[in-house]
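Board notes (copied after class):
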Amino acid sequence: LLAQKRVLVTGGSGLVGRAIQHVINEEGGGKDGEEWIFLSSKDADLMNKEETQAVFQKHKPTHVIHLAAMVGGLFKNMRVNLDFWRNNIYINDNVLQAAHEVDAVKVVSCLSTCIFPDKTTYPIDETMIHNGPPHASNFGYSYAKRMIDVHNRAYFEQYGRSYTSVIPTNVFGPHDNFNIEDGHVLPGLIHKAYRAQKEGKPLVVWGSGTPRRQFIYSLDLARLVLWVVRDYNEVEPIILSVGEEEEVSIKEAAEAVVRALDFKEEVVYDTDKSDGQFKKTASNAKLMRYLPNFAFTPFEKALKETCDWFVANYDNARK
């Protein structure tokens, strides 16, 4: 007997995919009548149309959580904008069309706050996505992600599809990519501090430390994505984030990493390195209207859990 709800997760072995697995398997976040299928890049190359169609025909999902993407931090994006544009356009077109062809009733795709206009007023909300060019450093990735929103509106207009998207702020947690060169800021800092501690050297933070970010714990995001799949019925995107008042500077984040790892050496800032966008403060007012009582994990607690995971799983962590 086929489960009445078969949820296929692309990018199922990544940071957010692993967090959803954790919430389903360890926290009893699954519901009766739901079957969960987590795909990784080993199961299908989503840049390939035929492979994507085949894996969707095989599992025939009723619901899709689309997390798969070609991703990387600021410095990797600056090197290969064309690759980010083309590869993500292919992935997104293949996934959304394959979902449509197997008659999936709901698709929730994951966007990013880097898609927001560079020149803007703050805080940014869901209505402002297309109001101007994104930051030049990662325009390829940003435009490809913005196009998912265009795609969703067109599927709704032409076929009445309930395909939507979520926009998390900076996600972090266990199973992240802790690569120092190509990873995101927080996992990069954790890995660098871990290594500097071992070598008895200072922690070198790239940039001035002044840019500000909102960080969301991957497990909190996973719980919210489950809510979106089940209960959020708009085609328009929804920002999934802690409040504006929870924004922290890179310097504050580095200091929190130092505390979480009990780092004893000096911390220095390499101001010759690029800072990227100064801030991209997002409003979570829409989310709060829907879920006024949602409790986010405090940043320091989430960061401690992430650091503990990294130290315990150092040999197998992506880095």
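Comment from the instructor: The chain has a mean pLDDT of 91. The longest strand covers residues 162-168.
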